[in-house]
Structure formats: structure tokens, C-alpha cells
Amino acid sequence: MQTFxxxxxxxxxxxxxxxxxxxxxxxxxxxxxxxxxxxxxxIVPYAPGGATDIVARIVGDAVQKxxxxxxxxxxxxxxxxxxxxxxxxxxxxxxxxxxxxxVTTNAITPILYANKLSIxxxxxxxxxxxxxxxxxxxxxxxxxxxxPKTASEFITYAKNNPGAIRYGTVGVxxxxxxxxxxxxxxxxxxDLLALPNKNGASGVIQDMLRGDVQAAFLNVASSGSLVEGGxxxxxxxxxxxxxxxxPNVPTMQEIGYPDVGTMAWQGLFAPGATPKPILETLFQxxxxxxxxxxxxxxxxxxxxxxxxxxxxxDAKAWHADEMKHWENITRVVKIDIAP
Length: 339
Known about the structure:
By secondary structure, the chain is an alpha/beta fold. The chain has helices at 2-32, 51-67, 82-89, 103-112, 121-124, 151-160, 175-186, 200-210, 220-228, 276-290, 293-301, 312-332, and strands at residues 40-44, 71-75, 97-102, 125-134, 136-141, 165-169, 192-196, 215-219, 232-238, 264-271, 305-306. The protein folds into two domains: 40-133 and 263-332, D-Maltodextrin-Binding Protein, domain 2, CATH 3.40.190.150; 136-238, Periplasmic binding protein-like II (D-Maltodextrin-Binding Protein, domain 2).
């Protein structure tokens, strides 16, 4: 009897072990799936057409070539980037929901709107790498016979017509807002009026084409073709050197304002709890994608400067420096933001 029970018990144990093994194998297989094994969703905190959207799509195409997996861009504009930050940071930390953000959304907003964020930015957002930085024009409209053709003429016009010049921004407290406010301060406390547009750079451009605003800091990627068409007039360029495509446009350094204007970076971010191995794999994938000749060609065509970080640690240090820089700028230049 004891032998029979023992044999029967052995069979029961074997059946149970087999069932556990069959249940466990899919888990092991899933855990060992090579990342990425399915499409990656990338949130862009602006409407289509601006620099951040362009960068996300160019880099996304390259990542798809490297990995064979889709890189799906989801545009989620509004609330100074907080909507996009919130969705990304609260997503599963598995490397399949990312965000391409810029100076405004991932440096200024976490400082100015810290009390409005539903996340702890420092804890809930992880930087993967910087991608590019973007030259910008100090731009004037040609609509309604706006006459200034140089930065000097613009300053003179503003001094002679206080309160008459409206300038466009992609939002209160955005880096173009700070750039123009700082320029106005440096140029003799010019009396300029900010007019934000919730539709991002494309909305500001439309405002300029209609003549609703007379000036703005606009990135070269989204406005260069309009300069070539004579619809907008660049007064200076925010860049380390003059641009080959616009050799007659002086740099901000050349017109006497070397510290005015932002080389607007575009970076890749992930939920803060994303495991380091996934972040490391993602970093390597994006780095490889950024080195593809066609990626370099496409980004250079947009006048973007390729500035990927050297490592995850380098990316973290870079982002920390950016946060310190903008903490200082927001103390120096006072902008009245909504309570």
C-alpha cells in the first residue's frame, strides 16, 4: 500500500511540476525577448511641423531601420508640455513609451510649473540622450510693410514706437519667450508685447505671415523656406557660425548680443523607472541610428547640429547642467506666468 501511494504521489508531483513548467516558460520567453520586440510609441509635446516633430520623425525612421520595429509618433500639444510629460512618465517603464522633448518642455516647464506637474520630474523622467540642437533666427515679418531690415533698425523702431511690436512665442515661459524678453532687456528695455500661440512654431509662423506679430525667435528648420521665399526676414541667427545657406545673416555674436538666444536642443526621454539595461539598449540603438548616413543627411538638411551624448552618464550630466542653466535664467529674466 505504501509503495502504491508513493508511486501515485510521485505521479501527482510530476504532473504539478509539468504544469508549473508550462506556465513558467512563456514568462521566461517574454522576459528574454530582445528589446525592442514591438513598436515604440514616441510622444511629441507639439503639433506636427515644428522642430521637435521633425526630429522625432527623422530619428524614428532611423530607429526603425536599425531595429525593424516601428517608431510611432504621437503629437500631444498643450499645457507647456505637461500633458506629454504626464502621459510619458506614467506609462509602463518598459521602453515602449518615450518622449522627444526640448528646452521648454524638459528644462523650463519643470522649473516654472513644478507645482502644476502631477509628477516628480527629477524622479519620474529619465534622459536617454540629447539628439540635436537647432539654430534659430531672430525673425521679423514682411507683412503690412514692416520696415526694419536689420537688428539695429528693429531696435530703433521699437524705441520710437513703444508697445507697437508684438512678438510670437510657443507659450508663456517657453524658451523663445525668454529669448525675446532677454533681447528686449539687453537692447535697452524695449517695450515689446508677447503674443503666445498654443499651436507651436507653426502657429507663430502663421501669425507672422498675417502680420499679427512682427517678430519672433524661430528655429531655422521650420522657417528657413519662408526666408528663401521672402515672406519672413531674418535679422540674425542664433548659432556658432553663419549658416552656409544664409551667408548674409549675421550671428547674434556679430550684432553684439552673444549671450542672447537659445540653441534649442531636442532630447529623448523615458519614464524614470525604466530599468537601466533597457535604457542602455535604447541609447545604443539611437546612437547607431544617429550615425546612419541618411540620418545625418536629413538632419543636416534641416540645419540641425547633431549632438548625441557619449553615454547614459554623459546624458544625465548634460541634462543636469541644462536644468541649472535655466534655473539661473528664470531668476534673471522675470516673466509673469499664470498662477
